[in-house]
Amino acid sequence: MQRRARLVLATVLLGLVALLGWRLAASRQRAPRELRQTQAEVGEPSAALSEGGRVDAPRDSGAPSHDAGPGAPPDAARREVLAPAGEEARPAGPQDWLARVRAAESVAQALAIAREIAALEPDEAWGALRAVFPAVAFSKARQQILKLFVLRADHPHTVRILHLGATDPDPAVQGWAFEYLRKVALRDFSGDHSAYLEWSARFTDLPLAEVLRENARELALRLSALHGGELLAALEAVRDLDLRPGQAAGVDLAAVLREAGLLVTVDAWLAGDEPEARRIGLRWLAELDPGEGYLRRSVLPLLQAQGQDAASLKAGACHALGRPGNDWAVDPLLDAMKADLREGPVLFGYARALAEIGDARVVPTLIAMIEAEGTYDTVYGVGYFGLTPLTGVAYHESHDGAFWRAWWQENRRRLPPEVGALDIPDLGK
């Protein structure tokens, strides 16, 4: 009996020893994986920036592709420089940030340090970034650092930060800087570096608001003197007129451009014979906010355009007219839309403009248009671009006139009285 008990006890002890050995081995295998996962999570760039931007950086699991050079700290020291423990270890000045950037072994690590710099007060951040930017060993990281700072749009040192990129030795980094500078200078320097250097000598050290104002004025004056190919090249350099940098810096760039005479220039384009200038001018009017008087005089007549460019002019006019508050334009848009009911994609522009204005009283008439035609251009064009944003009903290809009539009868009572009291008009076939 005692012999059997000793045998059972020995078996249990052997099992415990084996179990402990297996757990120890498993923990040794798991620890490096957990460490790598933690490092990857810490190094992953933030998914969102102000203005909806995003810093994109690939995970870098390998060794750095650059040569660390003589005098580089050993691995343990590099890790300590990269990840100081606690708030007390935060770098105190540009040289401390520089040491950490030089120790960065991946794009993700360099960006993580840049995000810390971006969180500093603007003057302190600029002092640190000026010291570390040339030392960032990865061109992709330098590109994303520009994006990290510039997408804030209101950083007082934006022009100086972009100058770091514009004078970077890597053409790819220069390209990113020039693309961002396009929104500040309203010019394209990517093909003329000497022109950029002249511009930089004038503007790099000025306050951002002053830079934006002066370049908007110069754009209006420059465009007023150009014609033909030179005008088209200048318009291509600006592309879409993006005035958001001015909003962030407290500058009403639309007002600056209007005061500098840009509306007079756009008028000349609309009356001219250059289709591309007319198209761009109409698109810019939506940003310039010219007011009801100008739109009635210069844009509303284009809804009656005839000839080869009629569809393009009508689409541009719809884009300029389709803004919240332009309720006065609803009836002219509806009348023009009825006249063009069989003109195909031009209906999309009308429907989008009416939806942007946001007057729900147009809903019964839009339903009548789908009922009257029942074509793809009405079911999709009027339904998707007009009725979906005005009613909240998701578009589906089966939403024909019968569907919308049934929807109207069922839902009109829950709409505002001045809308629900309306009947679907008979537009005929």
Characterise this structure.
Helix content is 65%, strand content 0%. The chain is mainly alpha-helical and 429 residues long. Among the domains are: 77-83 and 91-203; 328-429, no CATH class. The longest helix has 42 residues, at 2-43. The chain is elongated.
Short summary:
This protein has 429 residues and is mainly alpha-helical. The protein is 65% helix and 0% strand.
SSE topology:
Layout: H1 2-43, H2 75-82, H3 94-103, H4 107-118, H5 122-132, H6 139-150, H7 158-166, H8 171-185, H9 193-203, H10 208-224, H11 228-238, H12 244-249, H13 253-259, H14 262-271, H15 275-288, H16 292-299, H17 310-321, H18 330-339, H19 346-357, H20 363-373, H21 376-391, H22 401-411, H23 417-420
Share of helical residues: 55-70%
Strand content: under 5%
Mean pLDDT value? 82
Which geometry do the CA atoms define? Answer: elongated
Order of helices and strands: HHHHHHHHHHHHHHHHHHHHHHH
Instruction: Please outline the major beta sheet.
Output: none
| Rounded radius of gyration (Å) | 31 Å
Low-confidence stretches: 24-81, 83-88
Instruction: Please state the structural category.
Output: mainly alpha
What is the first-to-last residue Cα distance? 105 Å
Question: Number of helical segments?
Answer: 23
**Number of DSSP E strands:** 0
